[in-house]
Design goal:
Helices cover 30% and strands 18% of the residues. It is α+β, with helices and mostly antiparallel strands.
């Protein structure tokens, strides 16, 4: 397990992966541009072997994050498997609504196979 700090718009494209990710949890910026960049940039790190991977995008209740997800889904970049409507209970937050989408990337030109 490796934790990389920094602005994901810069750190993810520059990251030299030594292995592919089986779990990708994106909790990034809430602008359309930031969410779109995160969804696109993390794709190359997804494990497309037989083990596979899971993609979780946090704060999908944000209209701009949801738009980025839906655009990627329509373009065939990812597949939507589920939505968790009450994810805030995992954070033990009582006054915030947190919704996450769960899916997986489709293999594509920016993905790598292991």
């Amino acid at each position: 397990l490796e934790l990389v700090y920094g602005d994901s718009a810069l750190s993810v494209p520059a990251y030299e992966a030594t292995s592919m990710c089986q779990l990708i949890f994106i909790d990034g910026g809430h602008t359309y541009e930031a969410a779109t960049a995160d969804v696109q940039n993390f794709r190359r790190l997804a494990d497309h072997s037989l083990v596979g991977h899971t993609l979780v995008v946090d704060d999908i209740q944000s209209p701009e994050v949801l738009s980025a997800w839906e655009e990627a889904e329509t373009a065939g970049v990812l597949v939507h498997d589920a939505t968790l409507q009450d994810f805030s209970r995992f954070y033990n937050w009582r006054d915030a609504e947190v919704v996450v989408n769960i899916g997986r990337y489709q293999p594509g030109p920016t993905s790598q196979s292991t």
